[in-house]
From TrEMBL:
The keyword Kinase is assigned to this record: no
Top-level enzyme category: hydrolase
Name the UniProt record assigns to this protein: Carboxypeptidase
Species: Schizopora paradoxa
UniProt entry tagged with the keyword Ribosomal protein: no
Family to which this protein belongs: Belongs to the peptidase S10 family.
Signal sequence residues: 1-20
GO biological process, one term: proteolysis
Record-linked InterPro entries: AB_hydrolase_fold (IPR029058), Peptidase_S10 (IPR001563), Ser_caboxypep_his_AS (IPR033124), Ser_caboxypep_ser_AS (IPR018202)
Keywords assigned: Carboxypeptidase, Glycoprotein, Hydrolase, Protease, Signal
EC number: 3.4.16.-
Pfam families reported in the protein's UniProt record: Peptidase_S10 (PF00450)
Amino acid sequence: MKMKNLFGFLSFVSVHAISGALYEQAAINVVENVGPLELLSLPSEHFIQFSHPEIRGLSARIKKSQFCDGGVDSYTGYIDAGTRHLFFYFFESRNDPDNDDVLLWTNGGPGGSSSTGLFMELGPCNIAGPNSTKYNPHSWNSNANIFFIDQPVGTGFSYADFGETVVSTEKGAKDVAKFMALFFETFSKFKGRPLHLTGESYAGRYLPLFGAAIYDQNAELKSKGLTPVNLKSIVIGNGATDFFALVKSYYDVQCTNAVIEPLQSIGECVQMRLALPRCEKMQKLACIDHFDAMDCEAAFWFCFNALGTPYLRLGRNPYDMSMRCPVNHHLDCYPEQPNIETFLSQKWVQKEIGVDPSFGNFSSVSWDIYFAFWASRDPLHQNSHYVAELLERGVRVLIYAGTYDWIANWVGNERWTKEMVWSGQAGYVKEQLVDWSVDGHVAGKVRSYGNFTFATIYGAGHLVPHDKPAESLAMLNRWLAEEEL
């Protein structure tokens, strides 16, 4: 199994080259501002740049951008961290923007643009074709203000002045944490508003570290007389929080009735079952007891080749086991994706959102980011430790998973949530999975204890808001209201 193919699954993107990714910031008219700002006062013709003397090494640019048929005010901008520039979209809530919570959404990868989440899953508008968008009645901004961010640098419309790349989630987390502090400090009406970090796929790696960086940064903000960021929760969908738990579960989802029916022959399942003990032993020695980067990577690929490669030969969609899509042509099952890239490559769209005229065709994937992250072995680190520490500090965590996903399946995600060591582990494990419903129909199963919740969504694959929009919005709205699912 080549790493490129694995990356394609985790980021949900197509293969295109990035052109024109480097350009001069000065090409876009920017007016500097120091002090509080109001969103309604922002122009659409140029960016307003904002910064704070106590939040060093980072500023941001923002403007109005009416490009999405979403029924609300929308904004775009860049987070400027030295020579690194992260692109973002921001949409106000359809309900009560002056009081509703704030969400930040990121897609996976590493290197996958959040345009997929915006235009194909949970944004105010869905892609309607290569030239237009349409209103999404199930957008996650129904009761929340929401950011979509292209990160790390080099992803989507994000860029670096000299082509540098961020090679680890830890480094990217610091930029996101600083920006959240700057945003809440600058736009005073949002100050103290609850923040929820949301995302899917490789966001299972991103978000626990983003949350830790934001939480730990609050001590510094307080010491400087600034308002701490009110980190309320983390929401991860079909996440890659624990790669090994996912890979080991490939046996379960192919050879048992965990999802539909056994997909593999008895002979294939016997070979997979025999490989499991060696996989677990290699993982324990090289990745858990003592982390050795090279040995851990070798363990990962042994496990993946033994347990994952058989699935790839079936011709099924890695994002949805109920669909048949050849592994190298999985976009045949999702025609929206090429339309998103065509739409965002058009000059009138790029002008409206403030992208430099020298930027070329938009691509949903950065292979440079992918290779940089794998070179640093970023995907091999377990992240449940960060989830546990956030839970201990009162941050709420929701892990949800579409039951038809293969690559980041519900079995593996449930497994690590039960194995994670924290003060509520015994109580959490003791709780049974019970039904949760939407409009009188069972939507999935849920287990909850204290501030930790795990939920499944029946009939959904990797992209839950795309596959089950009404159910995913109901889940989010109940979570924001702190109600039981």
